[in-house]
Automatic annotation (TrEMBL):
The gene is Ogfr. Residues 5-163 form the Opioid growth factor receptor (OGFr) conserved domain. Pfam families: OGFr_N (PF04664). GO terms for cellular component: membrane. This is OGFR factor.
């Protein structure tokens, strides 16, 4: 089901699923019905993870009322991290790059600042961050992660000299 909701141009865990073509992605983007379904699927998955979309224009997110229970699930079952990576990649494919940035920042905040998702931290840094298509936004997120990573001297996701110069 997740593969149908969040298709990609690459093979996933199901080798029987056919990757999307660029032509299919463009056809999806031109269909308001498909895009509305995609947004509903995204919101459904967010609710499953204990997250609420608060602004459809910007992709801004917040914790849902059931966040504590859902975060326990995220911390307990690491297969969710693969699904989140897939969702992030699909958001980029479908033109929702702002949504990508907001979801990655949400997970960086929860893992590094609020420390509510310790078992998601590695995936957020190793995978989620690098799904962001915009180089500028990705750099901003890496800098944000570095600012909140403890200890900062152990941060390996960007060269220290570049982080020190970043503005």
């Amino acid at each position: 089901l997740l593969f149908r909701l969040f298709p990609l141009r690459e093979h996933g865990m199901n080798w029987h699923a056919r990757p999307l073509t660029c032509q299919e992605i463009e056809a999806f983007k031109k269909s308001s019905d498909v895009m509305q379904r995609f947004e509903r699927a995204y919101q459904l998955m967010l609710r499953f993870y204990g997250i609420t979309l608060t602004n459809q224009k910007t992709g801004e997110l917040k914790r849902a009322e059931n966040w504590a229970e859902r975060f326990q699930n995220l911390n307990r079952f690491s297969h969710n991290n693969l699904r989140i990576t897939r969702i992030l990649k699909c958001l980029g494919e479908m033109g929702y790059e702002d949504y990508q940035v907001q979801l990655v920042k949400f997970f960086l905040t929860e893992t590094l600042v609020k420390e509510t998702l310790p078992n998601v931290k590695r995936s957020a840094l190793d995978y989620f961050l690098f799904t962001v298509r915009s180089k500028r936004k990705r750099r901003e997120l890496v800098y944000y992660a570095w600012q909140h990573f403890k200890p900062q001297s152990s941060f390996v996701w960007a060269p220290r000299d570049k982080l020190l110069k970043y503005r």
